[in-house]
Specification:
Radius of gyration: 13 Å
Largest sheet: 5 strands, parallel
Strand order of the largest sheet: 2-1-3-6-7
Helix content: 25-40%
CATH superfamily of the domain at 32-87 and 94-104: Response regulator
Number of helices: 5
Distance between the termini: 8 Å
Number of strands: 7
Structural class: alpha/beta
CATH architecture of the domain at 32-87 and 94-104: 3-Layer(aba) Sandwich
């Protein structure tokens, strides 16, 4: 699998399950974060190819974090994909306005789904 992942979500159980799933499917999960501050620090240090960002990070906004991650990146920085348990239609306008390259329902999380968003064939 040709890319690395940082997962950002305020739900510890989801972080554990997502990390295990993506690792089992052959992706290299560099780390996880549960707050915007952690995510920014880990993204700067780890330099993942992809950052999966939950739209609702408790009291923080995943949309704001996506803006910060993209503004903070270098030419070869991370790509942001937004995630939620809610339907994409619930946030369609905000997703379209965000710097994220796509949206992934948490229930559909997989290496293949990430690859399709990245327009890569990872099989």
């Amino acid at each position: 699998m040709g890319f690395t992942i940082l997962i950002v979500d305020d739900n510890g159980s989801f972080l554990d399950a997502a990390r295990a799933l993506l690792k089992r499917e052959g992706l290299h999960v560099l780390g996880v974060a549960s707050t915007s501050a952690q995510a920014l620090g880990r993204a700067e240090h780890l330099r993942p190819d992809v950052v999966l960002v939950d739209i609702n990070l408790g009291g923080e906004s995943g949309f704001e974090l996506a803006k910060l991650l993209v503004a903070d990146r270098s030419d070869n920085g991370s790509t942001v994909i937004l995630m939620s348990t809610n339907a994409e239609a619930d946030f369609a306008d905000l997703i379209a306005e965000s710097p994220a390259i796509g949206f992934l329902p948490k229930s559909e999380l997989s290496a293949g789904a990430i690859g399709r968003i990245l327009d890569r064939d990872i099989n």
